[in-house]
């Protein structure tokens, strides 16, 4: 499914959103950017909750909004689902009532799991008859996701759906999202400002800053660009390693922070680290007095490492020289 | 128990009052819901006019409201004549008329309670409903009303309690007909105007007070329950 936005402008008070991009929304697309960059506004605009000031939006050949042509399909006819950050469960209904609400309004021609099936899948079967006010944050998130899936949209937008989760539950949830997207053949666009989450599930990435889309395309490509690095805290600088290059359960890829990568000028032997990649030094950037960023071109892609200026001298690293990147399994 | 405590005449008065107030609530509720919904919208042309109409009965003398009803719906008026010839309905000087007069007087109270309830609903929930394919009409029935109905109910109970005490508009439009339009306040007034019936006036006043307080307490309880329900 192709999601296309052409010269879209949306104004919300003093905030201005501009978007012009096209993504092959198949599997999971991540909208990444710092807080206040317009990620949520972008989702709301695609869902039709904010009116465009200019531009057009289409899903495949279906035009959802086109200001110059005077077209604006209302939200309830777009077939675009949205899971809100705050879940927005209906307080006058039980958990089951919330799911049934979506089920009753689903077009007969569209397939989706039945209520009990999805409740079992997301592990809240025993909550079905509870009023929603008694649910925890994590439970709310799961019910909101189930409700959106039961409604069988053509495209599902998710606004930081795992904000209320942490640690292992969060990883499980990410894996589940990816599986559901695959099983249901349901393209998802997921907002996050966590780089680890983004690397883990993104097939494609839409990078945003200050209300603008600054890069979009395949995750491997977008996450390697210098303008993408500008979106990150110094601490989070690093590189995306594709899932194919590592052992373990990553879905799409893993974000490896520059601080957790060691460099060696000779092939390391007798060490405990599980991941050693051979490559050649591509760039050397002096970051501060105390840090130098070295990018190594390896078969797993570019790997960024932060070392001290003294280490740079000791290892005699220079552009084109052979070197090894070493990463502890824990960092993956 | 009520039967044992009240005389047949008092029972008659009480049942007239309950009937009039009950029908008044039924008459004004649908209109009040429409007004309240419109007034809870952010802005539209004519909003202040609508707001004025909704509040008018609160500031007009009740006798004037009764008189205006008589002019508009009395047997001599075109509308009143048409109602009478087409449907055989005569509002002036009838129990239905008393209910209409009471409905008009209780209208602002009802609109206010329902409007507050509409305004207290989280607009985000309506967005959530629309991404689940609920259109505007669907959202009104599946979200707006169910979320606000404790407020609607509280408004109805308040209007009912207030309706039990409506005097000026009722006596002007429906007159004081025993067993037909003589509600509690009209009966108190009648007893006060008859020498030697202080005792009856006193008893009727007590009944009236009890009914009003019960209504208010009930409305308060409903409102508290509603607030809890919407705090999910």
Brief summary:
Chain A has 332 residues and is an alpha+beta fold. Chain A has helices spanning 39-47, 95-104, 115-121, 137-150, 167-183, 195-201, 219-222, 226-229, 309-315; strands at 2-12, 15-24, 28-32, 54-59, 62-66, 71-72, 80-83, 155-159, 188-192, 204-209, 212-218, 238-242, 253-257, 261-264, 275-286, 292-298, 301-307, 322-327. Chain A has 2 domains: 2-236, 3-Layer(aba) Sandwich (Rossmann fold), CATH 3.40.50; 239-331, RNA polymerase II/Efflux pump adaptor protein, barrel-sandwich hybrid domain (OB fold (Dihydrolipoamide Acetyltransferase, E2P)).
Key descriptive features of the protein:
heterodimer; A: 332 residues; alpha+beta; Rossmann fold; OB fold (Dihydrolipoamide Acetyltransferase, E2P); six-stranded mixed β-sheet; 9 helices; 34% strand; globular; B: 232 residues; mainly alpha; 11 helices; 78% helix
Give your account of this protein's structure.
The complex is a heterodimer of chains A (332) and B (232). Chain A has helices at 39-47, 95-104, 115-121, 137-150, 167-183, 195-201, 219-222, 226-229, 309-315, and strands at 2-12, 15-24, 28-32, 54-59, 62-66, 71-72, 80-83, 155-159, 188-192, 204-209, 212-218, 238-242, 253-257, 261-264, 275-286, 292-298, 301-307, 322-327. With 332 residues, chain A is an alpha+beta fold. Chain A has a 6-stranded mixed sheet, sandwiched between helices. A 5-stranded antiparallel sheet of chain A has the order 2-1-4-5-6, with helices on one face. Chain A has a 5-stranded antiparallel sheet with strand order 14-18-15-16-17. In chain A, a hairpin with a 2-residue loop joins strand 4 and strand 5. With 232 residues, chain B is mainly alpha-helical. Chain B contains 11 helices and no strands. Chain B has helices at 2-5, 8-40, 47-59, 62-73, 78-87, 95-119, 123-131, 136-163, 168-173, 184-192, 198-230. The model of chain B has no long low-confidence stretch (mean pLDDT 88). Classes of the chains: A alpha+beta (332), B mainly alpha (232).
């Amino acid at each position: 499914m192709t999601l296309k936005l052409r010269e879209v402008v949306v104004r919300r008070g003093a905030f201005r959103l501009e978007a012009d991009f096209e993504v092959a929304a198949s599997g999971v697309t991540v909208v990444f950017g710092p807080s206040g960059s317009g990620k949520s506004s972008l989702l709301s605009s695609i869902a039709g909750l904010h009116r465009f000031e200019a531009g057009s939006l289409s899903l495949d050949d279906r035009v959802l909004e086109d200001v110059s042509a005077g077209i604006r399909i209302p939200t309830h006819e777009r077939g675009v689902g949205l899971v809100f950050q705050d879940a927005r469960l209906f307080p006058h209904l039980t958990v089951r009532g919330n799911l049934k609400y979506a089920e009753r309004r689903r077009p007969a021609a569209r397939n989706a799991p039945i209520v009990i099936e999805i409740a079992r899948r997301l592990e809240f079967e025993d909550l079905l008859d509870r009023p929603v006010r008694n649910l925890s944050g994590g439970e709310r998130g799961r019910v909101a996701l189930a409700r959106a899936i039961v409604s069988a949209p053509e495209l599902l937008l998710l606004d930081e759906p795992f904000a209320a989760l942490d640690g292992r539950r969060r990883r499980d949830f990410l894996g589940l999202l990816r599986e559901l997207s695959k099983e249901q053949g349901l393209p998802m666009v997921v907002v996050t400002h966590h780089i680890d989450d983004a690397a883990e599930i993104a097939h494609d990435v839409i990078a945003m800053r200050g209300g603008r889309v600054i890069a979009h395309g395949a995750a491997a490509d977008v996450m390697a660009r210098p303008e993408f690095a500008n979106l990150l805290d110094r601490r989070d600088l690093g590189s995306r390693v594709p899932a194919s290059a590592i052992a373990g359960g990553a879905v799409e890829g893993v974000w490896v922070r520059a601080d957790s990568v060691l460099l060696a000028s000779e092939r390391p032997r007798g060490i405990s680290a599980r991941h050693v990649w051979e490559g050649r030094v591509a760039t050397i950037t002096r970051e501060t007095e105390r840090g130098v960023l070295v990018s190594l071109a390896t078969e797993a892609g570019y790997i960024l490492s932060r070392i001290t200026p003294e280490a740079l001298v000791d290892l005699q690293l220079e552009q084109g020289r052979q070197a090894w990147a070493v990463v502890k399994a824990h960092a993956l | 128990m009520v039967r044992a405590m009240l005389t047949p005449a008092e029972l008659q008065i009480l049942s007239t009052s309950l009937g009039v107030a009950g029908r008044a609530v039924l008459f004004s509720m649908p209109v009040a819901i429409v007004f309240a919904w419109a007034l809870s919208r952010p802005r539209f042309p004519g909003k202040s006019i609508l707001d004025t109409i909704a509040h008018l009965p609160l500031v007009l003398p009740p006798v004037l409201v009764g008189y205006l009803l008589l002019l508009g719906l009395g047997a001599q008026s075109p509308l009143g004549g048409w109602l009478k010839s087409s449907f055989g309905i005569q509002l002036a000087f009838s129990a239905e008329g008393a209910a209409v007069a009471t409905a008009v007087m209780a209208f602002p109270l009802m609109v206010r309670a329902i409007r507050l309830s509409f305004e207290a609903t989280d607009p985000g929930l309506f967005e959530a409903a629309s991404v689940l394919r609920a259109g505007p009409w669907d959202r009104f029935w599946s979200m707006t009303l169910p979320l606000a109905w404790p407020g609607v109910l509280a408004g109805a109970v308040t209007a009912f309690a207030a309706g039990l005490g409506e005097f000026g508009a009722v006596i002007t439009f429906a007159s004081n007909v025993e067993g037909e339009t003589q509600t509690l306040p009209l009966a108190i007034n009648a007893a006060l105007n008859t020498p030697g019936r202080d005792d009856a006036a006193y008893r009727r006043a007590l009944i009236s007070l009890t009914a009003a307080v019960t209504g208010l307490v009930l409305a308060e309880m409903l409102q508290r329950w509603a607030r809890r329900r919407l705090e999910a």
